[in-house]
Structure formats: C-alpha cells, structure tokens
Write a structure and sequence with these properties.
This protein is α/β, with parallel strands linked by helices. 36% of the residues lie in helices and 16% in strands.
Length: 272
C-alpha cells in the first residue's frame, strides 16, 4: 500500500500577551514579568507580545520568551503629536530588534504593531495625512530591520471593515488582523481574510461576542477552525498571538490561567 504523502508542518508559532492578565501599564503590574513568563510557558505558549513598554525588561534575555511583536500608538491623521509618537517608535523598534531571535524582516521577527490611540473617524484631510504618516512610520521600522503591521482597533479611527479597506487601499502597510476587534466592530474575520489575506502578516486571535466582550475560544462568535483553515490555505507564516483582554483591576489569576490553558488546548486540538 502506498503511504500517503505527509502534510508539511504549518510554520506558525503561538504567543500570548500581557493583556491576558490585564496588564496595560508598567506601574504596579498585576504580576511580575518573571511570573508572567513562567505561567505563559507552563501553559504552552512559545512567545509573547511586548505589552507595555518596559514591563518585560527583566525577562528579555536569551533564555526568556521570544517576542512576537510590540504595540505602538501613533496619532495618525493629526499634525500635533505625530512627530513625538514617531520619535518614541524608535525606542520600541530598537527594543524589538535587540531582542529579535530570528533573521531581520523574516516572518517570525517581532512586528512593530502600529495603531491609533482612541480617536474619531478621519475626514478626507485626515486620511491624506495618515497616508503620508504611515509611509514615514513604516520606513522608520524598516530602518531597524523590522516589518511593521497596522492593527485596527475599537474606538479608534481605524475600526470597521470599511476603515480597513480604505487603509489598505491607500497605503502599503501590511495588516495585523485581530479577529476579536473585527467581530466587535461588526465585521467577519473570514470575509476580511478572503479580501485581504495577501496583506495579513500578523494575527491576534481573539474570540468575542457581538457586544465586544472578549471571551475564551468557543464562547463567542469566532469560527476558529474555519478561520485557521483559511489562514493556512493562504500559506500564512508567522505568529498567532492569542489574546483574551481582561480588565486592569480585580483580576482572577486562577481564571486567567484556566482560560490560557483552555485556549492553548483548543489550538492544540486543531493541530497547533
């Protein structure tokens, strides 16, 4: 009997993020970076998002968790403040590059994850300014040997599927597709993947309810298996950053760990 051909392993890695612990600032974090890294590794995650700048400093060592990417807000579409945010981007990019375990610009090199802070929809002038600023921000990241991605996000200027369409039509930026934020904005992750899969270079995997509540895999609206099948069919290669944002106060560590384990086990059951 002829042995069926082996299916090649999918070249993805699974990371977690400090948001899963409700850590959004360096000051008085819920748990230390060392404890965060230990729990994440124990739950089966291969890497981590940077989280708030400075939080992970004590574990950014050769034996610490690899970085998948790092969030950085820029006031796109605004004259005032963008130059300041762009200067700060150098610090984020230097940190990511200094702790890169992979070849520069490769699929697994940490991605500077660019986004707008909480902001209103852009007018025509704002969109024109965003295009020019996006070119500057992307060029700055590439000077550091890193390829940036743009993260759409609730309550910002780039939120809805239409916003994503316009952003990618007007700029050269690649996309960080966040399934949870897309669901919360009334979008369909599969539809966006079908339209823009060739521009997706980073993925934040979240399950969510239509009201914007982020939840463990299987409790929300995300068809995780179908999404992953579609992503694999596109030959996506890189990080899958599993996120289930929790509030920044009153965290239940036992529940957080249970959700971390559940989400990783669901992915393992799907072959990851």
């Amino acid at each position: 009997m002829t042995k069926p051909p082996e299916v090649p392993a999918w070249r993805v890695k699974v990371a977690t993020a400090p948001v899963n612990f409700g850590i959004y600032a360096v000051r008085d974090p819920f748990i230390s970076a060392a404890e965060y890294a230990r729990i994440s590794a124990d739950c089966g995650y291969e890497g981590t998002d940077l989280g708030p700048y400075g939080y992970l400093d004590e574990v950014l060592t050769p034996s610490g968790p690899p970085l998948a990417g790092g969030w950085h807000d820029l006031r796109f579409g605004q004259e005032r403040g963008f130059a300041e945010d762009l200067a700060a981007l150098d610090g984020t990019a230097r940190l990511l590059h200094a702790n890169n375990r992979f070849p520069d610009m490769s699929s697994f090199a940490p991605k500077p994850t660019l986004a707008c802070p909480p902001s209103e929809p852009l007018d025509a002038a704002g969109w024109g300014l965003l295009v020019r600023q996006a070119y500057r921000a992307a060029s700055r990241c590439r000077e550091h040997g890193l390829e940036p991605v743009f993260h759409h996000h609730m309550d910002t200027s780039i939120e809805t599927p239409d916003d994503i369409d316009r952003l990618l039509e007007l700029t050269e930026l690649e996309l960080c597709l966040d399934t949870g934020h897309l669901i919360a904005a009334g979008g369909d992750p599969l539809a966006t993947l079908r339209r823009w899969g060739h521009r997706v270079r980073h993925v934040h995997l979240k399950d969510a309810l239509p009201d914007g509540t982020f939840c463990r895999f299987g409790a929300g609206s995300l068809d995780l298996e179908a999404f992953l099948d579609a992503l694999r069919a596109l030959d996506y290669e890189g990080w899958l950053v599993v996120e289930q944002d929790v509030p920044d106060s009153g965290q239940d560590l036992r529940q957080i760990i249970a959700d971390l384990r559940h989400n990783r086990e669901v992915l393992a059951g799907l072959g990851l």
